[in-house]
Amino acid sequence: METMVYNFSAGPAMLPVEVMQQAQAEFRDFHGLGVSVMELSHRGADYMAVAAQAEQDLRDLMRIPDNYKVLFLQGGGRGQFSAVALNLMGINAKADYITTGQWSKSAVSEAEKVGDVRILDGLTTAADGRQGLATSWALDSTAAYVHYCPNETIEGLEYHFVPDTGDVPLVADMSSTILSRPIDVSKFGIIYAGAQKNIGPSGLAVVIVREDLLNQACPQVPAIMDYAAMAKADSMLNTPPTYAWYLAGLVFQWLKRQGGLEVMGERNKTKAELLYNYVDASDFYRNEVHPSARSWMNIPFQLKDDGLNDAFLKEAKAEGLLALKGHRIVGGMRASLYNAMPIEGVQALVAFMDKFAKRNS
Ligand code: PLP
C-alpha cells in the first residue's frame, strides 16, 4: 500500500490522486487506440475531441459567457505577463498595474517593455500592523486596462472581492487561485493562469479573453502569443502542449465530479480556516496577514524561533508532509492548499504542528 504523502508545494503542486491514477491507467493505451494521448496528432479527431471537451468542461465549471474565448497556450504564467501587454497595448500604450507582491511586480517588469505602466501600490497596513489589501485605487479611466494579481502566491495575500474598474478592462493573473471558488467571469476583460497549481502540468497557460479585446495588439506580438490568431486557430496555430492540455481536461472532469466550484469554494474555505484558526490560537506560530486579505490557497506562517525551521521541515517530511518551506523572500513556512489537497492533509499538518509546538515550547 502507498504511504499517504501530502504535498504542500506552491507549484508545481499536487494533482488529485484520481486524476493521476486515470492518467497512469491510460498512459500507453488511450481509449483502446494502442498509443498514448501524447503520441496523437493534435490535428486528428481523437485529440481534437480531448481538446474540445477540456474547453467545454472549463466553460461549464466557470460559467464562461459566450463572448469570451478560451485559449490553451504555452509559456506559463510569466509568458502571459508579456502577452497581455503585447495584446492590449497596440492602440493605447498605457496601463495601470496594482502591485501587491512579487508576482504583480514581475508582471510590471514585462509590461514596461511594451508600454507606459503606472504602478498603484495596492498594499495597506492594518491598525494591528498586519498586511492588508487596498479596496480602492486612483485609477486612470483612459488606461488600456488595469492589471492585478488576485492571489499573491508568495505573500499569501488574496482579494476576496473583484475590484471595480468601471469601463476599463480588468486583467487578472489568477495563476494560484483559478478554480478555487466561483467567480463572475463577466467582470473581467482577461483572466489568465499558469497551470501548475489548480489546473495541471507547468508550461501550459489558460487564457480567458473577452472578444472585443482581440483587436488591439501591438504589430510585433509573436504569433504564439497573439490572442486573436490563437483564437482563430483554436489554440493550435502551432503544436499545443497536448499532454498538459489533456491532463488539464482530466482535472476539469474531476472538479465536475466533486460538484463544481461552489463545492470547491466551501472546501477551500474550510481547509484554510482550519489552519488559520490553529495558527491564531497558538503562541508558537503566527501569520502576518490581516484576516480580510488572507489567502485560501497559500498560507505562510512563521515559527516563534527561526532556529527551529530546519527541524520542523525535517520532522514534517518524515511524517509525509512535504514542501512546507516558505519562499525565501518571506521566510518561515508556507502551506499551499490547492484544490487537490484533501481536508485530511490539513488535519495531518495541524496535528503535526501541534505536536512540534508542544515538544519545543
Ligand atoms: N503568477 C503567479 C501568481 C504565480 O504564482 C506564478 C508562479 O508560481 C506565476 C505567475 C509564474 O508562472 P510560471 O512559472 O508558469 O511562469
Automatic annotation (TrEMBL):
This protein's GO CC annotations: cytoplasm
Q: What is this protein called?
A: Phosphoserine aminotransferase
Protein task: Catalyzes the reversible conversion of 3-phosphohydroxypyruvate to phosphoserine and of 3-hydroxy-2-oxo-4-phosphonooxybutanoate to phosphohydroxythreonine.
- Return the EC number: 2.6.1.52
Main location class = cytoplasm
Q: Which organism is it from?
A: Zobellella endophytica
NCBIfam families (alphabetical): PRK05355.1 (NF003764), serC_1 (TIGR01364)
Q: Sorted alphabetically, which keywords does the UniProt record give?
A: Amino-acid biosynthesis, Aminotransferase, Cytoplasm, Pyridoxal phosphate, Pyridoxine biosynthesis, Serine biosynthesis, Transferase
Cofactor binding mode and count: Binds 1 pyridoxal phosphate per subunit.
Which Gene Ontology molecular-function terms are recorded?
O-phospho-L-serine:2-oxoglutarate aminotransferase activity; pyridoxal phosphate binding
User: Which cofactors, if any, are listed as required?
Assistant: pyridoxal 5'-phosphate
Where in or outside the cell is it found? Cytoplasm
Report the residues modified as N6-(pyridoxal phosphate)lysine. Answer: K197
- Gene Ontology BP annotations: L-serine biosynthetic process; pyridoxine biosynthetic process
Any idea where the Aminotransferase class V domain is?
A: 5-349
Assembly state and interactors? Homodimer.
Q: Known Pfam families for this protein? A: Aminotran_5
Pathway(s) the chain acts in: Cofactor biosynthesis; pyridoxine 5'-phosphate biosynthesis; pyridoxine 5'-phosphate from D-erythrose 4-phosphate: step 3/5; Amino-acid biosynthesis; L-serine biosynthesis; L-serine from 3-phospho-D-glycerate: step 2/3
Supply the InterPro entries for this chain. Answer: Aminotrans_V_dom (IPR000192), Aminotrans_V_PyrdxlP_BS (IPR020578), Pser_aminoTfrase (IPR022278), PyrdxlP-dep_Trfase (IPR015424), PyrdxlP-dep_Trfase_major (IPR015421), PyrdxlP-dep_Trfase_small (IPR015422)
On the tree of life, the source organism's domain of life is Bacteria
Catalytic activity from the UniProt record: O-phospho-L-serine + 2-oxoglutarate = 3-phosphooxypyruvate + L-glutamate; 4-(phosphooxy)-L-threonine + 2-oxoglutarate = (R)-3-hydroxy-2-oxo-4-phosphooxybutanoate + L-glutamate
**Residues engaged in binding L-glutamate:** R43
To which protein family does this belong?
Answer: Belongs to the class-V pyridoxal-phosphate-dependent aminotransferase family. SerC subfamily.
Give the stretches traversing the membrane.
Answer: none
**What residues bind pyridoxal 5'-phosphate, as annotated?**
G77, R78, W103, T153, D173, Q196, N238, T239
